[in-house]
Amino acid sequence: MSTPAPLTLTLSGAAGQIGYSLLFRVASGEVFGPDQPVRIRMLEAPGAVRAAEGVAMELQDAAAPLVADVDISDQPRRAFDGADLAILVGARPRTAGMERADLLEVNAGIFGPQGEAINSVANEGIRVLVIGNPANTNTMIVAAHAPDVPRNRFSALTRLDHNRALAQLAARSGAPVGEISRVTIWGNHSRTQYPDVRHALIQGRPALEVVDREWAEGEFIDTVAQRGGAIIAARGGSSVASTATAIIDHVHRRLHGVREGDWSSAGRISDGSYGVPEGLVCSYPVISRDQEWEIVQGLEVDAFSRARIDASVAELIEEREAVRHLGLI
Ligand code: NAD
Ligand code: LMR
C-alpha cells in the first residue's frame, strides 16, 4: 500500500503547554492515524519563536516516521500556507480568579489576522478548531475574517467539557465511561455552559433513571462547568494534558465518525438550530458525516434545558457585543 501524501497541520501556540503536549501525540499518529504523514507548521508569537525551535529540536529527536517536515514562524500567512487543519491554541490562559471572558480583550485581537491569513493561503479543504479562550467567541472572530471558508469548517473545542461530563457520570453511576452515550454540552465553553444528561444513556438506560435528578440538575452541572477553574486552583495552571486528549478526540471523531448511536459536542456557528441566534458559536450535539460535523436535530428541549441554554446564549450575545465594541468583527 502506498503512503498517503502528507497533511499540513498548523498549530498556533506550539511552544505553549498544550502545544508541547499535543505535538508528540500528533507525531505518534494519534490524531491523523498511524499511516498518515504530517507536515507541522508552528505559529508562535515573536517572543516564543526560540522556544518553538527547542520544541522542534525535541520533535526531531523523537525520530517520528510520520513527521514529514516542521516549520516555525511568527507570520500567519507563512504558517497557514497550504494548511489542511488549523488548531488555534495560541492565546493567554486565565489564572486563578479570572473567568474565561476576562481574556476577551487580551486574546481576541490574535484571531482576526489569523482568520485573514487562513482565508488567503490555507488549502480549500481547511478545517479550523479553536482552543484559545474564550474559545466560542474567538471562533466567531476567526470565521468573520475568513469569509470564503464555508461556515461548517469552524469549531470551538467543547469536547473537554463533554469528556468531563462523561467522567462525572461514570464516577456517580459506577458504569464505565465507554458505556455512557448521548451526553451534550450546550452553549459557551464557560461556567454558563449546560451539560445535559436528559438524552444520555448509561449502559443503555436513560441516565435520569440511573443517577438522581437533583444531582444531575445541580452538582453535576456545576462540577463540569467549573472544572477548568478547579484545575487552575489545584494545579496552579490551566488544564493541559486533558485538553490535548480532547483535541485528539474531537479531530479523530470528525475524521472517523462517532460511535453508532452516540454523538459528541462541539462549538459550531449557529444556523438557528435550537433557537440559538444565527452566527453565534454555540456548543451543540454533533455527529460527523463525510468528515463534516452536523448538528444532531430534533432533540426535545424541555423547560429546564431551555432556560439553561438561553442563559449561556445570553452570555454569548454579550461576548459578541464586546468584540463588536472592540471593532474585532
Ligand atoms: P500557554 O501560555 O502555555 O501557551 C500559549 C502559547 O500561545 C504561548 O506559547 C504563546 O507564546 C502563544 N501565543 C500567544 N500569542 C500568540 C499569537 N498571536 N500567535 C501564536 N501564538 C501565540 O497556554 P496553554 O496552557 O497552552 O493554553 C492556551 C489557550 O488555550 C489559553 O487561552 C487557554 O485558556 C486555552 N484553553 C482552552 C481549553 C478549551 O477547552 N477550549 C482548554 C484548555 C486551555
Ligand atoms: C479549561 O476548561 O480547563 C480551560 O478552558 C482553561 C480554563 O481557563 O478553564
TrEMBL record:
Sequence positions that bind substrate: 94, 100, 133, 164
Key word NAD present: yes
Molecular function as annotated in GO: L-malate dehydrogenase (NAD+) activity
Domain Lactate/malate dehydrogenase C-terminal: 158-323
Binding, NAD(+): 13-19, 107, 114, 131-133
Family annotation (PROSITE patterns): MDH
Domain Lactate/malate dehydrogenase N-terminal: 10-149
A Pfam family it matches: Ldh_1_C
Keyword vocabulary terms for this entry: NAD, Oxidoreductase, Tricarboxylic acid cycle
EC number(s) on file: 1.1.1.37
Active-site residues from the entry: 189
Entry keyword Oxidoreductase: yes
Gene Ontology process terms (BP): malate metabolic process; tricarboxylic acid cycle
Catalytic reaction equation(s): (S)-malate + NAD(+) = oxaloacetate + NADH + H(+)
Role of this protein: Catalyzes the reversible oxidation of malate to oxaloacetate.
Similarity annotation: Belongs to the LDH/MDH superfamily. MDH type 2 family.
The protein's name in its UniProt record: Malate dehydrogenase
Organism name: Serinibacter salmoneus
Gene name as annotated: mdh
